[in-house]
Amino acid sequence: MEINVFERIQSGLYVELEKQGFGPAVPLEEEDGGQSVYFATESVAYGLRYVPGKKQFELRSANLKVDGTPSEWRVLSSWLFDYQTSDRSDADSILNDFLEVVQGPKRVAMVQQKRTKRGKDDERVVDSLFFFNRLANMFPEIKEALNQEKITYGQVRAVTFTKGQVVPQVEQLVTLYPDSEAVTKLAALLDDMYRMGDLDLRCVVTSVLFNGLSDGAFGTLKDKTDEELQKALRFSRKLKGKKIKPEKPKKQGKKIESRLES
């Protein structure tokens, strides 16, 4: 390709990360010979890496050690990219996705700074669309369906899309590869989405996605999540298959009725 894709993505990331207080890219040596840099604040870092053997870009994060170097990296998002066959639009898609990932914590921080005496639920600003975009990195099969949903309806029908597209993919992954790194990454993503998600997204995670799984897949995935999500799942699972009737309005007392009539 004529353009330097790595530098293009690196530059695009730094434009956003600089606003969040991260320093410029620092080169990082990798054993596989791939390109790698990281952007750091005083305590955390984001890393951009190209893995030649897998032909993929990775966006990573890590805490910083006392000496200022990154500790163990955690992959936040990965995209296949073949320098021989991929094009500029593929590079732009990767950059846009990576930007969405690093902007997520930024959105949370903005809300926290604006809080006065609000409740903790005001910190939950991640919505279902953000969640689906993250899932599309793990399950490329749903990308086309996600785009079609936006084209057809102008939005993504969160419950319908989760039941029809997400649940089958999660069920298959967890059932066939229960101990895989992919399942561990999925559990970590669900923890993050439940912790940072708005009320709608939290319901999508617990009542739609998890309750749509078989008992075996449900148990396997639940055991890999954090305590906060596990606690919510213990209650939501009990409601699976049950029809919850809306609360009936209470009848007004006779004194109130007579008052209204007069």
Which features characterize this protein?
disordered C terminus; 10 helices; 5 strands; 52% helix; 262 residues; alpha+beta
How are the strands of the largest sheet arranged?
1-2-3-4-5
Q: How many individual β-strands?
A: 5
Q: Tell me what portion of residues adopts beta-strand conformation.
A: 5-15%
Structural class: alpha+beta
CA-atom Rg in angstroms: 22 Å
Low-confidence stretches: 107-123, 252-262
Proportion of helical residues: 40-55%
Describe the main β-sheet briefly.
5 strands, antiparallel
Mean pLDDT: 81
Distance between the termini: 83 Å
Task: Describe the overall structure.
Helices cover 52% and strands 11% of the residues. It has 262 residues and is of the alpha+beta class. A five-stranded antiparallel sheet has the order 1-2-3-4-5. β3 and β4 form a beta hairpin. α5 crosses α8 (215-222). It is globular, with a radius of gyration of 22 Å.
Topology (SSEs and partners):
Blueprint: H1 5-19, E1 26-27, E2 36-40, E3 44-51, E4 56-63, E5 74-80, H2 88-114, H3 128-138, H4 143-153, H5 158-176, H6 181-196, H7 199-209, H8 215-222, H9 227-236, H10 254-261
Antiparallel strand pairs: 1-2, 2-3, 3-4, 4-5
Helix pairs in contact: 1-2, 3-6, 5-7, 5-8, 6-7
Would you summarize the structure shown here?
By secondary structure, this protein is of the alpha+beta class.
